[in-house]
Specification:
Two copies of one chain form a homodimer. Chain A has 382 residues and is of the alpha/beta class. Chain A contains 15 helices and 16 strands. The longest helix of chain A has 28 residues. Chain A is globular, with a radius of gyration of 20 Å.
Chain lengths: 382, 382
């Protein structure tokens, strides 16, 4: 069997575990950096390996438009394409269709949309989205869903949730009928991808519960909590995570999509989340916002102009080992490419290290103490 | 003594040697990548080390404007500032003042100019330019010169050459009086920077000869050939190199500024050149133009869209070892940061490897054979 999840330790709702994919094992809880177009912007694959990144997220919508699914499939799938031999997860493209594309039209069959790049017309159905994800060949792929907009009325949210449930069924049916078409199927000894379901239900606890229960009935090897971090206040995010996660099976990984700050991800682990992804560490880095053990730091600030110290004296990353704040400030102020690369490496190191320490704390029984030291400042990202 | 040059082998006019600086030794002939703002655009210092880059060029004009000489001086000089513990060479800023700045006004005292960044007013004299170079603290610094424009009449070229000769004298006088002010002077056991002279003389062989002879009379530990690669046809460049180099001392390094293609640099070595710098490998890379053992390659070309091969099958660089042309084409076409980084790494590897093979050929007596295999295609750079 390709995908298997194993829990090694629990501490309250938090779990430390691991899952196994055709491209190797991933220790959880895990944060997945976003590599939209099969690249984590500005960071080379060998550096991601050095950082200890275990699994990347790629975006189906973007890769479908460029370079195209057929190109990636012919080249052996996203892992071979981007020369990354560790696990990859693709989203279904649903979120991007709703957030990036123009003139979208949703019917029960799927979504007609225009490319944000050139206005060309396209159509994603549950079947065609899963076909794209099979062609791309990531280890974990996501069911095609409708990410309900926020705010949304109860009735609209319920209808959207029903649509997502129907699409989940169709996603699974298509996947089961075609899962051996993954580019590396033969070479990986007949292993298959893992298709995860996505729970929706907007900001209504009862709809979250219903969506969770009925998604679980369809039966997936892992479950995502979608439709959060879409503009709602943070306490509501926590409430919805809580309202969802209690109805997800203990023995399957839970993936909270699109979160969060370094502090938030620790708290989501406490709620029982195993996997997360977010553009925050990489996008913030490109805007000069750096995460440190002492809080946020805006590297363009003039007070760093002659600062010989590293970004974070407690950080072991290769940027902090070598470069001063003064140099990084100069690179950023001069709009140099290297600023984006070095800032991103640091922020990813901070996230990877945070998850490593969280996992260690769960394994050693120190998680409550660890958690009590993590406060939740609020942050607006550029 | 801080700077020493030692020739190990000769083959015709070509030489293999090494020079010694306060930050270590450099094997010649050497190509110096350009790191204008104390960064080789898109490439981290550890990667430059891995590539075997021995010495970088930094631009005084740019660093004077950002982050400012005083900031770099306080931080210990450019090596500490950019966390690069190998040798660095700075130009004098003269070339940039003439090519980048607005509203410049040249008098016998120096050049008044406006910053290309914000229009602010500045003045460089031989004394202030050398003071800036001492404050930046590169291992090799260049005399302040006037790069004669091309084309220029004989009389104008002669006057410009005379100006450069007077400024060379003043550069040296100022340097001798202040050379212990280098930021790392004490910590490097009283070693000093090395100030090189620059030969001008435009496209007139007799002026080149006169400039060379009189620059040599001033006496520098190394000599640059300036004012070439400024728009003249390539055969004229070769003619001027030849007209200059025969009047430069055998026992001092010769630095040809601002050249060239991979083929050209081999031919300049054949003419007796020891050091070169050029933005070509790095700038061309950022425009998707790659150098290979089989010729140039424009990575955005659609024919690479599904090409699984490396940029250059004969190349040992880490980009060629890992990534396909299809992936690099995708990154470039998608305007991804990583395209610029990976392309630059490859082109620098190609230059470094070319110089390594040239040096080996000179040491082993095979240089004539090596040279006969290097043709000179002409190239227009974006």
């Amino acid at each position: 069997m390709s995908f298997r999840f194993q829990i090694e330790a629990r501490d309250g709702a938090a779990r430390a575990g691991r899952f196994f994919t055709p491209h190797g094992e991933v220790q959880t809880p895990v944060f997945m950096p976003v590599g939209t177009l099969a690249t984590v912007k500005g960071v080379s694959q060998d550096t991601l390996e050095e950082l200890g990144v275990q699994i990347l997220l790629n975006n189906t919508y973007h890769l479908y438009l460029r370079p195209g699914v057929e190109t990636v499939r012919q080249l052996g799938g996203v892992q071979k394409f981007m020369a990354w031999d560790r696990p990859i997860l693709t989203d279904s493209g649903g979120f991007q269709v709703f957030s990036l594309s123009d003139l979208r039209k949703v019917t029960k069959d799927g979504v007609a949309f225009r490319s944000h790049l050139d206005g060309s017309s396209h159509f994603f159905s549950p079947e065609s989205a899963i076909a794209a994800e099979i062609g791309l060949g990531a280890d974990i792929i996501m069911a095609f869903d409708e990410c309900t907009e926020h705010p949304a009325e109860y009735k609209r949210t319920q209808e959207s949730m029903e649509m997502t449930l129907r699409w989940a069924r169709r996603s699974k049916d298509y996947f089961e009928a075609h899962k051996w078409e993954t580019p590396w199927f033969a070479e990986r000894h007949g292993q298959t991808q893992a298709l995860f379901g996505i729970v929706q239900g907007g900001m209504f606890p009862d709809l979250r519960r219903e969506s969770a229960r009925r998604t679980v009935e369809i039966d997936f090897p892992g479950y995502a909590i979608g439709g959060l971090s879409v503009g709602e206040p943070r306490p509501m995010t926590y409430e919805m995570v809580d309202a969802t996660i209690r109805f997800l099976p203990e023995d399957k990984p839970r993936y909270l999509m699109g979160v969060g700050t370094p502090e938030e991800i620790v708290h989501y682990v406490a709620a029982g989340v195993d996997m997360m992804d977010c553009v925050l560490p990489t996008r913030a880095a490109r805007h000069g916002l750096l995460f440190t053990s002492e809080g946020r730091l805006t590297i363009k600030n003039a007070r760093f102009a002659a600062d010989e110290g590293p970004i974070d004296a407690a950080c072991q990353c290769k940027v902090c080992a070598r470069y001063s704040r003064a140099y990084l400030r100069h690179l950023y102020a001069s709009n140099e490419l290297l600023a984006q690369t070095l800032n991103t490496i640091h922020n990813l190191a901070y996230y990877v290290d945070t998850m490593r320490r969280v996992r260690q704390a769960i394994l050693s029984g120190d998680f409550p103490k660890f958690l009590s030291g993590v406060r939740l400042p609020h942050l607006s990202v550029p």
